[in-house]
């Protein structure tokens, strides 16, 4: 189901409370719970990706002037690979879990069921307008939920692609698209959902969280922050520069996990800038504005914000600094000798500007990082294991990557998420399924006489003897798992009965 319009046409009136109620009715009907239904929806979604690659690439080019290679690597194939991984592991992920149990429950069944939450709201972001909306949506479908998705109105072409194409492949009663801007988002947040997944900035994340609290709705907030890069003199500087600059300038820095600033010694700073000049010329030519491989800033408002940051740092520009408002172009820019109090260090940059803050050593870098909000990612470039260990153990961040940038996103077994100001909750791979799944614990007992006999000490009248027996039974012990004890007991019982029958038969034959 699609509600409203994001084209230049007048938007249709939207009755959001009615839409949300219909979504709850669909979930309550049980339609989304069968595993076969879920798998079929995921297979259809994969088919959509594979059949509409070019449309997705074109939409990304219209919104961000995203080149084909970045569009495929960072969005289209990224979605295909994630969904393929989900389908390959779907049967295993959806199985009830059977955790270890103690001696008290040795004869019982202890199970954790994977229950869908119900109706989930997924609010996407404009910087990766397909990946950041459709990937969590797939996790919600896999978990058996009804999903209402809200594409970013700032990425108009991608939103229109989702509106026009997605309903052709998925069940429109269970996957519902709500179009619009802040007004529609505000109205959505007034409704009662069973789970909310939001990707975007920290300020709006706080609004989403406040709205969720009113209904005690669980949330995942994928936010951002200033992700630092520490570089020491032990590294291969040529490789380090390439890896840092690639992570920074894909999507012209409009990436939540882009390196935000560098911490290094002045000696490392000078080497970094010297090599960066050659690398950037090799990648984007003499005039980066003519390069087909550089994206553009999403809109004029964001361009003006970044232009103001460049203008405020004119005396510290070592590379770049040029911009063109009409083209929404800002050249890859590196600032040197930046201090923690400079304007560029106040908020997440989210653009192609890379400040370098000189520090003396790793200890000073740790102090600098810990004096600020917890970042989404912390990058460390060093071959000194002691330095790496020290930074890992003495800082807090959503995630880390050592000796590279952004590439941690390609490891589906690594959950992705923030901490503190950079977010809460995580997803990717199995974690996407788990995020949209309530783990329902269940103890299943039977009426076997031996089990009731063991548990009868809990009944009144109480006595010291009963208390001693039951506390001894419940006491936690180290040792081998009791997982197979019921089978061993059954085998022992069977063996005992067999031996008894054999002995009785032998005695009977002796009498004859």
What does this structure look like?
Strands 1-5-4-3-6-7-17 form a seven-stranded mixed β-sheet, with helices on both faces. A seven-stranded mixed β-sheet has the order 10-13-14-9-8-15-16, with helices on both faces. Strands 2-18 form a two-stranded antiparallel ribbon. The protein contains 17 helices and 18 strands. The termini are far apart. The chain has helices at residues 16-28, 35-51, 53-64, 68-93, 131-142, 156-165, 182-189, 202-214, 237-249, 266-284, 300-312, 362-370, 385-394, 430-435, 449-455, 464-474, 485-511, and strands at residues 2-3, 109-116, 119-123, 146-150, 175-178, 195-199, 219-222, 228-231, 261-264, 317-319, 323-324, 329-330, 333-335, 353-358, 377-381, 399-402, 423-424, 437-444.
Strand order, largest beta sheet: 1-5-4-3-6-7-17
Count of helical regions: 17
**What composes the largest sheet?**
7 strands, mixed
What's the gyration radius in Å?
29 Å
Mean pLDDT: 92
Query: Tell me, what's the shape?
Result: globular
Q: Helix/strand/pairing class, anyone? A: alpha/beta
Unreliable residue runs: 5-10
Relevant terms:
512 residues; seven-stranded mixed beta sheet; 44% helix; globular
In brief, what are we looking at here?
It contains 17 helices and 18 strands.
SSE blueprint:
Layout: E1 2-3, H1 16-28, H2 35-51, H3 53-64, H4 68-93, E2 109-116, E3 119-123, H5 131-142, E4 146-150, H6 156-165, E5 175-178, H7 182-189, E6 195-199, H8 202-214, E7 219-222, E8 228-231, H9 237-249, E9 261-264, H10 266-284, H11 300-312, E10 317-319, E11 323-324, E12 329-330, E13 333-335, E14 353-358, H12 362-370, E15 377-381, H13 385-394, E16 399-402, E17 423-424, H14 430-435, E18 437-444, H15 449-455, H16 464-474, H17 485-511
Parallel strand pairs: 1-5, 3-4, 3-6, 4-5, 6-7, 8-9, 8-15, 9-14, 13-14, 15-16
Antiparallel strand pairs: 2-18, 7-17, 10-13, 11-12
């Amino acid at each position: 189901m699609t509600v409203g319009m994001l084209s230049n046409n007048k938007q249709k009136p939207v009755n959001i409370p009615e839409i949300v109620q219909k979504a709850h009715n669909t979930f309550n009907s049980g339609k989304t719970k069968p595993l076969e239904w879920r798998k079929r929806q995921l297979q259809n979604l994969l088919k959509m990706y594979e059949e509409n690659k070019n449309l997705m690439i074109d939409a990304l080019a219209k919104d961000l002037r995203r080149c084909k290679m970045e569009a495929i690597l960072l969005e289209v194939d990224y979605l295909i690979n994630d969904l393929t991984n989900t389908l390959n592991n779907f049967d295993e992920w959806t199985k009830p879990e059977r955790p270890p149990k103690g001696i008290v429950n040795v004869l019982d069944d202890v199970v954790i069921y994977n229950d869908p939450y119900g109706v989930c709201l997924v609010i996407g972001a404009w910087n990766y307008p397909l990946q950041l909306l459709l990937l969590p949506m797939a996790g919600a479908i896999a978990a058996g939920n009804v999903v209402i998705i809200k594409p970013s109105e700032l990425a108009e072409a991608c939103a229109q692609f989702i509106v026009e194409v997605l309903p052709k492949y998925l069940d429109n009663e269970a996957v519902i698209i709500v179009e619009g801007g802040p007004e529609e988002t505000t109205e959505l947040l007034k409704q009662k959902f069973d789970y909310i997944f939001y990707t975007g900035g920290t300020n709006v994340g706080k609004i989403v969280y406040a709205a969720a609290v009113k209904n005690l709705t669980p949330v995942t907030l994928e936010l951002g922050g200033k992700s630092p890069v520490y570089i020491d003199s032990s590294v291969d500087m040529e490789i380090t520069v390439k890896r840092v600059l690639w992570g920074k300038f894909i999507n012209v820095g409009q990436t939540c996990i882009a390196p935000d600033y560098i911490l290094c010694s002045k000696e490392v700073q000078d080497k970094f800038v010297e090599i960066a000049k050659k690398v950037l010329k090799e990648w984007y030519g003499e005039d980066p504005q003519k390069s087909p491989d550089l994206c553009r800033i999403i809109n004029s408002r964001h361009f003006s914000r970044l232009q103001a940051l460049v203008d405020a740092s004119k005396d510290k520009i070592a590379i770049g600094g040029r911009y063109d408002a009409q083209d929404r172009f800002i050249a890859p820019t590196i600032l040197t000798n930046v201090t923690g109090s400079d304007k560029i260090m106040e908020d997440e940059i989210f653009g192609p500007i890379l400040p370098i803050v000189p520090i003396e050593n790793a200890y000073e870098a740790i102090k600098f990082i810990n004096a600020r909000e917890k970042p989404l990612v912390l990058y460390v470039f060093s071959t000194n294991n002691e330095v790496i260990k020290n930074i890992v153990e003495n800082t807090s961040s959503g995630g880390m990557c050592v000796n590279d940038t952004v590439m941690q996103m390609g490891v589906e077994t690594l959950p992705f998420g923030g901490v503190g100001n950079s977010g809460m909750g995580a997803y990717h791979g199995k974690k996407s399924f788990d995020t949209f799944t309530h783990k329902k614990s269940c103890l299943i007992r039977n009426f076997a006489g031996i089990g009731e006999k063991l548990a009868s000490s809990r009944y009144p009248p109480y006595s010291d003897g009963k208390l001693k027996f039951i506390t001894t039974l419940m006491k936690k012990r180290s040792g081998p798992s009791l997982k197979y004890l019921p089978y061993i007991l059954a085998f022992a019982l069977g063996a005992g009965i067999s031996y008894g029958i054999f002995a009785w038969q032998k005695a009977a034959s002796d009498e004859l």
